[in-house]
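User: Earlier you gave me the apo prediction for this protein. Now I'd like the version with adenosine monophosphate bound, so I can compare the two side by side. Same sequence as before, with the ligand SMILES added.
Assistant: Got it. Here's the input I'm using:
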Amino acid sequence: DSEGFTGEDDGEVTEGKAIYMVSDGTGWTAEHAVSAALGQFEHCLVNRGCSVSTHLFSGIDDIEHLMEIVKHAGKEGALLVYTLADPSMAASCKKACELWGVPSLDVLGPIIEAIGSHLGVSPLGLPRGAAGRKSTLSEDYFRRIEAIEFTIKQDDGALPHNLHKADIVLTGVSRTGKTPLSIYLAQKGYKVANVPIVMGIELPKTLFEIDQDKVFGLTINPVVLQSIRRTRAKSMGLAEDKSSNYSEMDYVKEELEYAGKIFAQNPTWPIIEVTSKAIEETAAVILRLYHDRKHKYSMPRISKRY
Amino acid sequence: DSEGFTGEDDGEVTEGKAIYMVSDGTGWTAEHAVSAALGQFEHCLVNRGCSVSTHLFSGIDDIEHLMEIVKHAGKEGALLVYTLADPSMAASCKKACELWGVPSLDVLGPIIEAIGSHLGVSPLGLPRGAAGRKSTLSEDYFRRIEAIEFTIKQDDGALPHNLHKADIVLTGVSRTGKTPLSIYLAQKGYKVANVPIVMGIELPKTLFEIDQDKVFGLTINPVVLQSIRRTRAKSMGLAEDKSSNYSEMDYVKEELEYAGKIFAQNPTWPIIEVTSKAIEETAAVILRLYHDRKHKYSMPRISKRY
Ligand SMILES: Nc1ncnc2c1ncn2[C@@H]1O[C@H](COP(=O)(O)O)[C@@H](O)[C@H]1O
Ligand SMILES: Nc1ncnc2c1ncn2[C@@H]1O[C@H](COP(=O)(O)O)[C@@H](O)[C@H]1O
Ligand SMILES: [Mg+2]
Ligand SMILES: [Mg+2]
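And here is the structure of the complex with adenosine monophosphate:
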């Protein structure tokens, strides 16, 4: 979710302009939105023309804490974005920011307002942690956990006899991002299995026997793949001797061609180009296709009921 | 991220009020924000007083597609929320919505504007998929993938000799949510290991030898745990005979007491109560403590550099 993220806080982070994110909940909504918005400033973040530090304050549900943070933001010259479900907390935050000269933005209020008037219903006005909220023991809760546990067990070609139980099956050569992609999709509630394509190793028969509408191939530019494999080999401490041709260009190309032939033999599999896509972008492409194949809406979409 | 999510689209989703989410990117930012906002309407969603269907349209970067969606939204009487990085696309969207009588909300524009004036820099105005954007092959990209792969390998007490390599080690009895929590944290870039507490099985010595500041205990209400274990046993098709006392109340209580004793013997481990917390809420609590222990800021926060 935080694409532009470049440094964990290995010490007091003070350089650059500060953005404070304040939530009565986890803060992940504000973080996600800020991170997406920061993508629009990559041109100056990357070369440090305007380095930015973000500071997430979560679980802020009392006014004393909130005021302390606003004061701090004022001292640091920070921008403050907030998600506060209690309208009086949100109003206090806005007022205090004005008082202390802190530029501020309510990330949640406008959406709640728009949905409230759309539904003709008043919002609860209570933080997610407050008493009286829905239990997490919903069907959906169990479905997601099952998806994650299934996906972990099916990683890297394991248990090929279970492929038919998967919602989505990913296949591609090593380092096309099958594992992180599988996990990303699993978090969204999909059971995913991934099957590596390795030259000289036969693919499991079940891959061709299951519903072919759920199989997706991943492909990648050979130069980028080589660079990823080199980094991988280094981080695993593999020696750079000739016995390991895993990241050699000839081998990389040959393996991608081998995968390409398999893909050509299975024309129902959509082939997704992952080069220069973030995991969540590839996930979006796959889920769009997945739902499209399932429903054939006039306009491709992912629909959910709440 | 979609806490209130209750139904996958197993057919054309038409009942209830519609919310259209339109993005030139993945749509996950809009989905995350809408899902958090819908949490404020749980009181009527849950009992179906005002059932809602959301429809996500991703990768919308041309005006023709956009206009088609707006028209559709008009016909369906939908609310339309959008994240469009190109200001002219965002303006067209707004105008078209006015024209077709579609209530609309720009989720991204205000944040980009606030950050832009805070930094004194103009935004790119290009969708994330557009040419010229930062490559995903950043240090951070590799760090996250490594975290995910590490975390998968360390699931369920595997490879205890690797515990010292983890950033965070979770421990607790079966079904306290260690696995989904580990995966959630891994996606955020943390290497996580989880170690189950099972009566009659000794914990690995390494758990007590590693840096104790990174160990966290999970605990849960016994009634809730029993209900989770029952659901689990059913979904795994375990027979409900007496030989399996996994979900029997006496056993559940005894095992939680056993875990409680271990926690008491290791007072440096923070004990996190997970009952009625969503995974992402427990993750927020753990990360707040984790960063707090590491940095001892005057005010607990999670800081990042961009
Ligand atoms: N399930 C939920 N029920 C009620 N409010 C929620 C829910 N999820 C998120 N929120 C609210 O939405 C805002 C953002 O949440 P968070 O992403 O946890 O910081 C906070 O004000 C939360 O209180
Ligand atoms: N890394 C990024 N670079 C540029 N724009 C981004 C980035 N991430 C997200 N955005 C923009 O933020 C909005 C939300 O993105 P998404 O969550 O992918 O729908 C879209 O308008 C994207 O184009
Ligand atoms: Mg893998
Ligand atoms: Mg587990």
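For your comparison, keep in mind: The mean pLDDT of chain A is 91.
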